[in-house]
Amino acid sequence: MERLQKVIALSGYCSRRKAEELISKKQVKVNGELITQMGYKVNFNDFIEVEGNPLNNIEEKVYYLLNKPRGIVTTTKDEKGRKTVVDLIKTDKRIYPVGRLDYDTTGLIILTNDGELTNYLIHPKNNIEKVYVAKIKGLITKDEIKKLCNGVIIDGKKTGRAKAKILKIDKKTNSSVVELIIHEGKNHQVKKMFEAIGYSVLKLKRESIAFLTLDGLKSGEYRQLSVKEVKKLYGEKNN
Ligand code: URA
Questions:
Q1: Centroid of ligand 1 to alpha carbon of 188 (angstroms)
Q2: Is 118 a residue whose pLDDT tops 80?
């Protein structure tokens, strides 16, 4: 049994506070009955309607952390029939990926059916830290690293504060390896940031999101997040 406002928020319909507002405005029904009592307890089999809309995503919440291999799409279904990140996880729940990693990008991705956590993790105001390691073509300079940190223009907008450091400069193969830490999640953000300073990305891996890392997970492996980890994620604001 969970509190009604929590279940509404978990479905991703709106925030917990907004759900409380809707309950007090008599906009929420459970099994056809109008509910105004705050904290009313429901279970995952109850039929909940909010502002006349049935909530169809109130199953028990699950959370997975996957080490995504290269050559896998980050969607629930691919129209070209390619393997998706969801195909790699054995579950009967309707999970989906939080955010996106490109087909050729590897590394950490969270999958869940918790709409509230998804909204929380992808909203830029929550400043969730993501660490990437990129192998790029060419020999990057310290000045160019500074440019990445100060923000570069991608899609007509300046990127937010970032941290970057050179991990390797390889003159023989004419390539560099850079760690880039960002708090946003624009489409192809890392590749576009390097493009903005004249470099193309040869390989890209996401090493971590907030305090979650790939420790103990080989490529293609996954594990469930603990209740403690999920709670900690909600508390995560790197302001
Ligand atoms: N930035 C990119 O360019 N690609 C990814 O897959 C993730 C971040």
A1: 4
A2: yes
